[in-house]
Amino acid sequence: GGEQLRWDGQTVVVTGAGGGLGRAYSLFFGSRGANVVVNDLGGSFKGEGGSQTAAQKVVDEIVSAGGKAVANYDSVEYGERIIQTAIDNYGRIDVLINNAGILRDISFKNMKDEDWDLIMKVHVIGAYKCARAAWPHFRKQKYGRLISTASAAGLFGSFGQCNYSAAKLSQVGFTEALAKEGVKYNILCNTIAPIAASRMTATVMPEEVLNNLKPEWIVPLVAVLTHKSNTSETGGIFELGGGHMAKYRWERSRGALLKADDTFTPGALLQKWSDIEDWTNPQHPTGPNDFMTLLEDAQKLPPNPRAQELDFKGKVAVV
Ligand code: NAI
């Protein structure tokens, strides 16, 4: 047997930890020596109501198994109170798992401001508030591990979930930026897009599928990314579920150099359309600096002959 990854002496805050994935993370960290702050407002999956039972039950489970945990019942909108619970009880915070979430599924046609605003409040503002409150502690101690929770809905857009899709992809940009700002202070930030059985997915997936999507199967990646032995993995985007794990990256097509044609007409662009969609020899940019390389490379592309005024179907029409 190898050495166990452990979090002795460290404090882990898990938001939305009263059920589903957050509960699975909390029980794991509790079993591996961490002080766990189990946050959950205890409302419905649509963001209605509240109760202290959900978080307290998870705390009881951890404590009765010999672990250390305290509950916090604030909404993630008040992230500063959640982080304060960690400081008050354990004097520190080392890991933040931004996990709390709700759904307000409805077609865009029928969406009300309330459906949009509530999703933004929990997923976008909530994740911001918790990270914002943890950040000064992370910087001061030159240590922090942060996990953001995105979703395939965010990566691809999902029918009937434009509010949720927008909020979930926001976690990618947010976390990429935090990864860049945090790296100097040993603050490592990664994004996961999980798939797991929970009350959120219970209504949309059949039972035999859900049986193969255990929330516990998401835990190992979260563990590896938030352990002190991770010293380099930051800004990653991971998709996982059902025991499968994979990493995402951006891909940029070979592209076209419009500049070689000094007309800059729409017709000049259409003439180069196939290059814009050419996925042979793609690039995998990791930051804005790559754009400079792109421009240098673009100078080496063959010049665009004078625009021939083509439309999308290759007809001579557009200038
Ligand atoms: P869940 O509904 O079991 O867990 C979410 C928890 O967040 C609930 O316990 C809820 O009470 C809590 N919560 C909601 N609003 C809160 C607030 N304002 N403050 C504090 N806590 C709040 O669902 P699940 O599946 O465990 O979801 C966890 C995260 O994973 C969510 O961010 C969800 O969007 C995301 N996710 C889940 C997927 C899945 O397949 N289960 C797919 C993609 C993303």
TrEMBL record:
Q: Which residues of the full protein are shown?
A: 2 to 320 of 903
Gene Ontology biological-process annotations? fatty acid beta-oxidation
Q: Where in the cell is it found?
A: Peroxisome
Q: What does this protein do?
A: Second trifunctional enzyme acting on the beta-oxidation pathway for fatty acids, possessing hydratase-dehydrogenase-epimerase activities. Converts trans-2-enoyl-CoA via D-3-hydroxyacyl-CoA to 3-ketoacyl-CoA.
| Single GO term (MF) | oxidoreductase activity
Q: Which protein family is named in the record? A: Belongs to the short-chain dehydrogenases/reductases (SDR) family.
The protein's name: Peroxisomal hydratase-dehydrogenase-epimerase
Q: Name one GO cellular component term.
A: peroxisome
Record note on quaternary structure: Monomer.
Ketoreductase domain residues: 10-203
Its keywords, alphabetically, are:
Fatty acid metabolism, Isomerase, Lipid metabolism, Lyase, Multifunctional enzyme, NADP, Oxidoreductase, Peroxisome, Repeat
